[in-house]
Amino acid sequence: LRILINSSPLWLACVALMVQSVISTSSTYRRPAPGGEGKRTGLMERTLILLDVNTRSPVQVLNDNFLSLQLDPSIIKDGWLDFLSSKRLVTLARGLSPAYLKFGGKRTDFLHFHNLKNLAKFRGPGPDYYLKNYEDDIVRSDIALDKQRGCKLANHPVMMLELQREKAAQMQLVLLKEQVSNIYSNITITARSLDKLYNFAECAGLHLVLGFNALQRNPDSSWNSSSAFSLLKYSAGKKYNISWELGNEPNGYRSMVGQTVNSTQLAKDYTMLRTLLQSVRYYSRAHLYGPNTGPPRKNAILLLDGFMKNAGSVVDAVTWQHYYTDSRVTKVEDFLKTRLLDTLTEQITKVLKVVNSHAPGKKVWLGGVGPAWAGGTNNLSDTYAAGFLWLNTLGMAAMHGIDVVLRYSFFDYGYTHLVDQHFNPLPDYWFSLVFKRLVGPRVLAVRVAGLQRKPQPGRVIRDKLRIYAHCTSFHNHNYVKGSITIYIINLHRSRKKIKLAGTLRNKTVHQYLLQPYGADGLHARSVQLNGERLLMVDNETFPELKPQTLRAGRTIAMPPMTIGFYVIKNINAYACRR
């Protein structure tokens, strides 16, 4: 398919007839001559972008659980684990199913399992109310839940939630201090804690992936598996369907605890864990993921390379982590730099090169993904602006064949989560929900013209208009098989016009345009879909995601600094019919 560039300057000072003649006289872009009319102050250039998609075959086929979730073990420490049975929280998690739910993070390597039902003695200090009454409230809630059969859900009293938020706010300061200092305290996960965690995953339709503590070591530096074995026996007795992982960012153990685990030892540890799983009949065929290395800098790459050489066949998928920025990010512009967005492509390329050199075709998962590190930044990494990074992550990861992306975190302390502590969805949640509803696992190649100026030698052109295409999700019964979903990130400060060409020409389009709601602009913590604010109807009901129908042949107009999803209906794409 030949794609032409159709781009023309519009002179605002000219009359309407002149504008019409300028548009119709040229089908190629012509740069205004220096000093000419194009340099006049206040005049504006608009570029028409032609877009087509290869509908014959997908370039990648991803996991059905491509967009998945992560919970940090800190929810045990700040008390939120006891509220995972909330109807609203379960509803919000169910909205993003099917998905994996990984329970892990930096504190994975400080988790200790004790097969005890009573949590009280393991709770930290708090206000007098907590010491006298709070534990009783939790116990009464647990007793009520135990009487329920199947999925156990609760409507917690408002006062109880308010007191929990007060407690969590105090603990959040401690947790953030730990993360910034890279010094962590131990966390006890009890049988009761595991029951609550699994109940949440089961009720929400999520598959739990649990990480073991890899820093429990014997004198000879080998992994001490006693705690893991105890946990495996308990969960097998309960018939909990769980997949497993060992450790978190082993390349960073030296800076965290002054201890080093090299690739040879890590490979032995994973081999031991695989043997341990096979010794427990219920988990003899359970999935094992790892080694969960950090961003692919020198030490992490060396560790991953050695691990793949010695134990690449032991894991069912290779896991690693990526985060864009740290808590020093202080302004919106820091989230919009295309150079920052493109760091993900560079890191994916490095990881895939190592994995494919030892185990071609091995599935790769990207975990720990969030808009910022160390808890993020208030009024920034929890706002609309962070959505550009999140959607860019999903699009780039899909194009490179990353099988699963785990979002850190679904619900947590800090400012990088999808749901806040009032159980209200934040912008990234709504982006994720629309993605889940519309985007399927088959990735299609996008072809555009008019997007970039001619490359110059030695100059990297980084697009501020990012376009990705997938087959529409088969789970969405509003669209027949063969439909295509295109999602677009416009980082420009001006509107961009996109004309569907080739196989997409003259097709009816459903538009799902997501913009900030309210006067805060990119700092908004609410989102509007096609002009209507997105809000939960009640604790168990989502708002209707109503598309705006664009007539066949109409040009797509993307407002500045926005994100849009576009479903091409009834295109009967061959790649999407199977």
From TrEMBL:
Signal peptide coordinates: 1-24
SUPFAM superfamilies reported in the protein's UniProt record: (Trans)glycosidases (SSF51445)
Any Gene Ontology biological process: extracellular matrix organization
Domain of life: Eukaryota
GO terms, molecular function: hydrolase activity, acting on glycosyl bonds
Keyword Amino-acid biosynthesis: no
PANTHER family: HEPARANASE, INACTIVE HEPARANASE-2
Full protein name: Heparanase 2 (inactive)
Species: Oncorhynchus mykiss (Rainbow trout)
Organism lineage string: Eukaryota, Metazoa, Chordata, Craniata, Vertebrata
